Structures are given as structure tokens and as C-alpha cells.
Amino acid sequence: MQTVIALTDNNKIFSELFYYSTLYGYRFAITGSAEEALALFAQYRPAMLVADCSDKEQHFLKFARQLSPGLAVIAICDGGADEDVVVEAYKNGADSVLRLPCGSREFYYRLTNLIRLLNLGTGQDKVQVITLGGLKIYPQNNQVMLGGEFIPLTGTEFKLLLLFVQRINRLVTLDELHRLMYETEELQYTSRALSVHISKLRHKLKLADIPELELKNIHGKGYRLIYTGSSRNGENYE
Fold first, then answer.
1. 53, 63, 235, 236: which could form a disulfide with 75 (CB 3.0–4.6 Å)?
2. In the structure, what pLDDT confidence band is assigned to residue 143 with cuts at 50, 70 and 90?
3. What is the pLDDT of residue 169?
4. How many angstroms separate the Cα of 234 from the Cα of each of 132, 194, 207, 230, 237?
5. Computed over its alpha carbons, how large is the radius of gyration of the chain?
6. What is the reported pLDDT for 225?
7. By CB neighbour count within 10 A (0-12 exposed, 13-18 middle, 19+ buried), where does 93 fall?
8. 213 has which bridge partners?
9. CA angle 6-8-11, nearest 5°?
């Protein structure tokens, strides 16, 4: 059964989601706690997040988008919400906005089609995982785990990591990295911006504490992710 994590502390929306969770094979893990949402996210690696966008600051929606920039996010609101709420939800990164209550079939097909359109699968297929020592990378849903703990990367950081992994033990040139930055950054890249992203990536992945992994700067040429473990760039299926 596919698990979808939903973030809301609105009792009415909570009860409606609970009703929908009994239909069509979707199971909703509903919480109003960011800490619990993070734990559920690490446990289930969902293909989609559902977030209440009713409050003025849209805290739940912003948090859901921050959890994993590459995943599908549906913003939900009460049927009486005005247009400004919906517009703001899209500005804050929602892939789709749904007013509740709605028909159960509409809700199901909204979720299913959004997952399909984003090529994220429905949870029925095997999940690809690239294992480098204690580091596990899930390319299909833009997630990284380190020692069983979810590591929140930005979209740019994840794409940088995936490029390094795909070219493991080989040089990734500055030109290649700059092209990637052009694809992922809203503003024009700078060499300083690239250095900052890579520094943050090193820090988040605690590379200094993983002896078999080293992200090495080849001065004036680019970077090389060096892996000396036994299962180099292994791709397993769970």
C-alpha cells in the first residue's frame, strides 16, 4: 500500500484526509508535527507529500517543499479558501492545489496522475538505490540516507551529488558543473556559488567522517568523488 505523508493541524482537513486514506490503496500518514513528518519521510520515502496551505504563511507547504525539492507536493485547503491562497501555494512550490472536500475519485486520480506525470512511480516498482558505504542515494525520488538518517539536500545539491556519483572516481570538469548550475539555478551561477554548494554538500554528508569517500578538488579543473569501498557505485534494489 502506497504511503502518502500529509501535514495539517486543521481538524476538518485531517478528518477528510483520514476518510480518503481508506480508499483505492493509498494510506495517509497525517501529522501536524514537523519532527514527526521528518521521521515518517525517512521511514517511508514517499513519492508524494500533501501539505495544508490554509494558514497565511503556508508553513506546512514550505516545509514539505524543503524536505525534498524533487518530490511531488499537493497543497490542500478548505473549499472556502479564496484565490489568493491558491496563487500563494503555487508561488511556494506546490505542483497542484486541491480544495477539500472533493469527490473521492477526483482525489485519487489527482494523486495518481500527478505521480505519473512526474515519473515518480506509484510505489509498486522496485526502488533503485546506489550504495556507497553508509551512504544510500535514491535517484528516483531525490533522497539521501546516511547511516539510516534522512539528509535533506536542496535540488541543486542533489543534482551535484548524483553527477559525482555517476562519474565516481573520474573527473567532473568545471564546465560540466557550470552547465549543471545553469540548469538548476534561477540566477546566473558564479564560481563562488558553486564552491558554496559543494561546501554545503560536504558538510551535510559528513564526508570528513567517511574514510572511504572523498570529494577532491582538482585545482583549476574540477572535482572528483573518490570511493575506495568494496561496493563501488553498487546499484541494488529493495
1. 53
2. confident
3. 92
4. 7, 27, 18, 9, 10
5. 19
6. 94
7. middle
8. 227
9. 120
